[in-house]
Amino acid sequence: MIIWGTGAGGADLGQQSVQECPVCEKDRPFNLLLRYRYAHLYYLRWVTKRQYFLACEICQRGAELNVPETEKALGKDPVPFMTRNGWMFLLGAIVVAVLTFAALTGGR
Ligand SMILES: [Zn+2]
């Protein structure tokens, strides 16, 4: 049986600026928000879609941002490490299991 599916996550990356919100019609703090979707097969995960928004903290309205430019400005990837690189650990676990098996059976 193959276990697979999709999931979604998000993060509030903190306040970026205070500016007038066109919806609230007042000065509001604007936060950088990340939303992402991922697919998984067993415990292997990879990110299928990511979106950044600069959104009003009060009404959550805002504009979608350009992904490469936003990530360049951030200087780091805010998606959790295991979601981005979970497949590497599975690969590593398989390699360790094979090597352990070889070491245990190789002495006979
Ligand atoms: Zn607002």
Can you walk me through this structure?
The chain has one domain. The protein is 31% helix and 47% strand. It has two helices and four strands, in the order ββββαα. Strands 1-2-3-4 form a four-stranded antiparallel β-sheet. The mean pLDDT is 91. The protein binds zinc ion. The site of zinc ion has 8 residues, from loops.
Ligand types: zinc ion
Percent in helix: 25-40%
| Shape category | elongated
- Average per-residue pLDDT, rounded, comes to 91
How many distinct domains? 1
Radius of gyration, CA atoms, in whole angstroms? 21 Å
Tally of helical runs: 2
Along the chain, the helix and strand elements come as: EEEEHH
Distance between the termini: 34 Å
Going by helix content, strand content and strand pairing, the class is alpha+beta
Beta percentage is: over 45%
The largest beta-sheet arranges its strands as 1-2-3-4
Q: Low-confidence runs (pLDDT<50, min 5 residues)?
A: none
Reported for the largest beta sheet, the result is:
4 strands, antiparallel
How many runs of DSSP E, i.e. beta strands?
Answer: 4
